[in-house]
Design goal:
The protein has a single domain, classed as Metal Binding Protein, Guanine Nucleotide Exchange Factor, Chain A, CATH 2.170.150. The strands form two sheets. It has a four-stranded antiparallel sheet with strand order 4-2-1-8, with no helix packed on it. It is globular and about 35 Å long. By secondary structure, it is mainly β. The longest helix is centred in the first third of the chain and has 5 residues.
């Protein structure tokens, strides 16, 4: 039986309103799924924190940038988000699409 995924509950989640949802993030150009991501709080997806990503080996994918494995479109660049001192991917506008998914779909 597959391992159930649970939301991370920490100070970052609480600071963003205390609710989370799963997003399937995909390349906007070719629709290839990239990663499942835990989005905390409301608002648009500007960056993805590495500790919230599921389904990829972040060390392999981030050399040097995040790109689509199929069409090689540049999706984002690695940064350290200074407000929280956390590693993240800053996404380029229009590079990725997203779909809210339920925990049952994981």
């Amino acid at each position: 039986m597959p391992k159930k995924s649970k939301f991370q509950s920490d100070k970052f989640k609480k600071a963003r309103g205390g609710f989370s949802r799963w997003l399937q993030v995909f390349c906007e150009s070719c629709k290839t799924p990239i990663v499942t991501y835990q989005k905390d709080g409301p608002g648009i997806l500007k960056r993805m924190y590495l500790d919230r990503m599921m389904g990829i080996d972040t060390q392999k994918w981030l050399k040097p940038n995040l790109e689509c494995p199929k069409c090689k479109t540049l999706l984002g660049v690695p940064i350290i988000y200074k407000k929280e001192n956390r590693p993240a991917i800053r996404l380029f506008a229009g590079a990725v699409g997203k779909k809210i998914i339920s925990s049952k779909e994981l």
